[in-house]
Automatic annotation (TrEMBL):
Family per similarity comment: Belongs to the class-III pyridoxal-phosphate-dependent aminotransferase family.
GO MF annotation list: identical protein binding; N2-acetyl-L-ornithine:2-oxoglutarate 5-aminotransferase activity; pyridoxal phosphate binding
CDD domains referenced in this protein's UniProt entry, alphabetically: OAT_like
Cofactor(s) annotated in UniProt: pyridoxal 5'-phosphate
Name this polypeptide is given: acetylornithine transaminase
Keywords, sorted A to Z: Amino-acid biosynthesis, Aminotransferase, Arginine biosynthesis, Mitochondrion, Pyridoxal phosphate, Transferase, Transit peptide
Pathway annotation from the record: Amino-acid biosynthesis; L-arginine biosynthesis; N(2)-acetyl-L-ornithine from L-glutamate: step 4/4
UniProt subcellular location: Mitochondrion
Catalysed reaction equations from the record: N(2)-acetyl-L-ornithine + 2-oxoglutarate = N-acetyl-L-glutamate 5-semialdehyde + L-glutamate
Organism: Cinnamomum micranthum f. kanehirae
Length: 469
């Protein structure tokens, strides 16, 4: 198991030497920021948390003919599940993407925390080309070398003994749901109704298929499709006492938790919370499942975000960045869990195909390097400092938080006007939470000057929030 990287330490703070209160002056107020680790990386502006905001508006002005044509056609032929921003992207290079009219944008979203190596990484392209010309797909009827190699590497690099491949984050979680139920049946064969229920948390996001959706906290994602999988209890993220009471022997099959919540608004768990979940699961015979689909694979500055906490799961799910933009999902599991799974219990036609796995090996090769992970820690810290310095004095900014290069800026209003203004100024950013959190999840290869450029544009665009609710 590889668990020590440049961010190691008894505290989860990557930089004890910079773990000092820092004072920044802004035109409007003076405030202090403490950089203390994932549970406390925040700019303390002394403001109350408050929900706000509506989703982003789209406007079609300023678009070229190709973009307009593509958007209109999309409106006719694609099922309208996405409220897209009015931007047609055609090309990418490094941390930049280009629209159909050739305008350049700095990409601080990385395809929703996917393109960790940026766009057009030469080693990733080489791996894809190599494998595409050798063998793309065989199905899981046969063995294939890249799948076995990737499995071996993931096992070697983590707590896990075995892996199961899928095609996306939601599918990885779906498999983890099935594995949890099978685990309970396998180890309690004489119990008529073994533990079959799940615990998930407020602000959680685990996917859109029926099982993962049932674990996703936003009610309006679930309600149009009910009944979803029954037996899920949602508990306040971080509330140790309620969690301890809720995790019950004979009832709870598994607890699903994101060590750093992404879609829900960039909330970092505390070490005590994850430790309490670990021991409550052990006492109850329940499985602890870390969903690292968004925060895993280097984004936190650790290869796996849970390494920052020193708490280990029975199952971890991964997806987004693992194959550099090609679709992949993985369930990593201990032998104890894997022993409960038999031939035919689960499967997928595409999963773990040679092309995807060979690409993922190239991504893992780069991200796993201690110096790469150290650079993510350093740049994440720098980004937070820049944001606090440049935006901290703005009355709309309530908090800057996050771990590594997954950073949230909580606002007291909807972020949509800021997203639009930044896009018009050549910067792509995401939102999270109730639309009031700016989410920054840039390619992990981003440079410090690019981080400065992003924070300058954000700072210049802050007036767009004035007068918004
Ligand atoms: C933590 C987490 N889990 C699961 C998912 C679902 O992944 P996918 O969209 O690949 O199905 C996401 C997607 O944003 C996620 O952030």
């Amino acid at each position: 198991m590889i668990s020590l990287y440049a961010c190691r330490g008894s505290s989860i703070s990557p930089y004890p030497s910079v773990n000092l209160p820092r004072s920044f002056k802004s035109s409007q107020q003076r405030f202090t920021v403490r950089l203390e680790g994932p549970n406390r990386i925040s700019a303390c502006l002394g403001l109350e948390r408050e929900a706000a905001g509506s989703a982003g508006k789209s406007e079609k002005s300023g678009l070229g003919a190709t973009s307009k044509e593509m958007m209109e056609l999309e409106g006719k032929v694609v099922v309208q599940t996405y409220a897209r921003v009015p931007l047609v992207l055609v090309r990418g290079k490094g941390c930049k993407v280009f629209d159909a009219e050739g305008k350049e944008y700095l990409d601080m979203g990385a395809g929703i925390a996917v393109n960790s190596l940026g766009h057009g990484d030469p080693d990733l392209l080489k791996a894809i080309e190599e494998q595409a010309t050798t063998l793309i797909h065989v199905s899981n009827v046969y063995y294939s070398i890249p799948q076995v190699e990737l499995g071996k590497r993931l096992v070697k690099s983590s707590f896990a003994d075995r892996v199961f491949f899928s095609n996306s984050g939601t599918e990885a979680n779906e498999a983890a749901i099935k594995f949890s139920r099978k685990f309970q049946r396998f180890y309690w064969p004489d119990v008529k109704l073994p533990a079959m229920e799940f615990i998930a948390f407020t602000n959680s996001f685990h996917g859109r298929t029926m099982g993962s959706l049932a674990l996703t906290s936003k009610k309006n994602y679930r309600s149009p499709f009910e009944p979803v999988m029954p037996g899920v209890t949602f508990i306040e993220y971080g509330n140790i006492e309620i969690a301890k009471n809720a995790i019950q022997p004979g009832k709870t099959a598994a607890v699903f938790v994101e060590p750093v919540q992404g879609e829900g608004g960039i909330y970092c768990a505390t070490k005590e919370f994850l430790q309490a979940l670990r021991s409550a699961c052990d006492d109850a015979g329940a499985l602890l499942i870390f969903d690292e689909v968004q925060c895993g694979m280097g984004r936190s500055g650790y290869l796996w975000a849970h390494e920052a906490y020193g708490v280990f799961p029975d199952i971890m799910t991964l997806a987004k960045p693992l194959a550099g933009g090609l679709p992949i999902g993985v369930v990593l599991t201990t032998e104890r869990v894997a022993a409960a799974i038999s031939f035919g219990d689960h499967g997928s036609t595409f999963a773990g195909g040679p092309l995807i796995c060979h690409a993922a090996l190239a991504v893992l090769d780069k991200i796993q390097k201690p110096e790469f992970l150290a650079s993510v820690c350093k740049k994440g810290q720098y980004l937070k400092e820049l944001l606090v310095h440049k935006l901290g004095g703005n009355p709309h900014v309530k908090e800057v938080r996050g771990l590594g290069l997954l950073v949230g800026i909580e606002l007291d209003v909807s972020a949509s006007a800021l997203v639009d203004a930044c896009r018009n100024s050549g910067l792509l950013i995401l939102t999270a939470g109730k639309g009031n959190v700016v989410r920054l999840a840039p390619p992990l290869v981003i440079s410090e000057p690019e981080l400065e450029q992003a924070s300058d544009i954000l700072s210049n665009c802050m007036p767009s929030l004035d007068g918004n609710t």
